[in-house]
Write a structure and sequence with these properties.
Strand content: 5-15%
Largest sheet: 5 strands, mixed
Structural class: alpha/beta
Order of helices and strands: HHHHHHHHHHHEEEHEHHEHHH
Oligomer: single chain
Radius of gyration: 28 Å
Number of domains: 3
Low-confidence stretches: 44-53
């Protein structure tokens, strides 16, 4: 009996559209795997259904939280050895044994028992005080913020984040509860090198270490740092707005050249809607002193400023940013390749701008700090 290949392919396409698994399709039509994958490569109609959907940063965060939640729930069920069909007394007894190890709220939800019932039970026990119950609640919040920061935050940052969410506590309390939870920041300290003296005045330092600006797009600062995967070197160029310390542009490249700094600046210039009255500060690296780069800034009427040669303190904000980036991200990860490094850097930059509180900004994030500024300006205009 002659097999109608065209009809067979059409049936396969219909099954793929209906999200039927490959294994099921192979068994259904008695197809060799090699034949099916050959068709996938051969025909766009079929391969289009197997294109991966793009995943946003928000999708990634949701999936990661869901994974952590399911992992925690599985471990809770395993340790409690108590289920929803147990009596209230059995549930209270089981939960009381693991207070401090697991969040009370999570245990109550899984065993389907009101949180108030468990707290009343704990308070009736002579060894549990109201302060201990409060500490258990605070532990849960501390652990949550710690995990949301991908274990980057120490006590200082956790305290700032809690206060920004309306949870009042003290540094001493956060530190003591972190010890009980056995958690600490995974940042690795980087030894700073002493500044080198240089009297060169060929390039003028117009910024003069006035790092606190009163409005966005007055002064941008930039630098390039070297990153490695095994013996392979890569280069990250970053531009910050001094007003909010926000990362307004960055690029990762296999080469440290003028094109890297020019393209990063162009990104920033477009991202910030081509601001007027802008000044740009950097060190005296060849990327920034090159004719092509200086000519671009002159053309855009951007005033250029330089650190004194060999003096990192003249561009301390950029030095501080890269130091933080390496402690919190680069020194804590092992990247597989250039693309993997790029994806992780993308994730970190969003975390830095959107989630990480900044001490200089009164423990606000760069995005929040800028948002508050523009909101204030709008109110002043409406009143005027």
């Amino acid at each position: 009996m002659k097999i109608d290949i065209k009809n067979l392919k059409q049936n396969v396409i219909i099954d793929i559209k209906n999200n039927i698994k490959i294994k099921t399709i192979l068994n259904k039509y008695n197809l060799p795997k090699s034949t099916l994958y050959y068709w996938l490569k051969q025909g766009k109609d079929i391969s289009d259904y197997y294109k991966k959907k793009s995943v946003t940063y928000q999708d990634y965060e949701k999936l990661k939280k869901e994974r952590d939640r399911l992992s925690l729930e599985l471990q809770i069920f395993k340790d409690l050895h108590c289920f929803t069909d147990a009596t209230t007394k059995e549930k209270e007894t089981a939960i009381s044994k693991f207070v401090g190890k697991y969040p009370i709220k999570a245990m109550c939800r899984l065993l389907e028992i009101p949180k108030g019932t468990v707290y009343n039970y704990l308070l009736r026990k002579t060894k549990v005080t109201q302060y201990q119950v409060r500490d258990e609640e605070l532990k849960q919040e501390i652990y949550r913020v710690f995990k949301e920061s991908e274990e980057r935050f120490g006590a200082k940052k956790i305290l700032a984040k809690l206060r920004s969410e309306g949870i009042n506590t003290t540094m001493k309390k956060v530190q003591s509860l972190m010890l009980l939870l056995n958690i600490k920041s995974k940042q690795k300290l980087i030894k700073s090198e002493p500044a080198k003296k240089d009297e060169s005045a060929y390039y003028v330092n117009k910024l003069k270490r006035l790092f606190n600006q009163d409005a966005p797009n007055k002064y941008w600062v930039s630098d390039v740092t070297e990153l490695k995967i095994s013996k392979n070197k890569f280069y990250l160029c970053v531009i910050l707005d001094l007003f909010s310390r926000k990362v307004i542009a960055y690029r990762l490249s296999t080469q440290n050249n003028t094109s890297l700094t020019i393209n990063t600046f162009k990104d920033a210039y477009e991202n910030r809607n081509r601001p007027a009255g802008l000044s740009f500060h950097s060190d005296q690296g060849s990327n920034y002193t090159a004719y092509e780069f200086k000519d671009l800034l002159r053309l855009l009427k951007v005033e250029q400023s330089f650190s004194h040669k060999g003096n990192p303190y003249d561009n301390a904000c950029m030095e501080s940013f890269f130091s933080t980036f390496k402690r919190e991200e680069y020194n804590t990860k092992i990247y597989n390749d250039f693309d993997d490094m790029g994806k992780n850097i993308d994730s970190y930059m969003k975390y830095y701008n959107e989630y990480r509180p900044h001490q200089t900004l009164k423990d606000k994030t760069p995005n929040q700090f800028e948002s508050d500024y523009f909101e204030k300006i709008d109110k002043e205009k409406s009143v005027g």
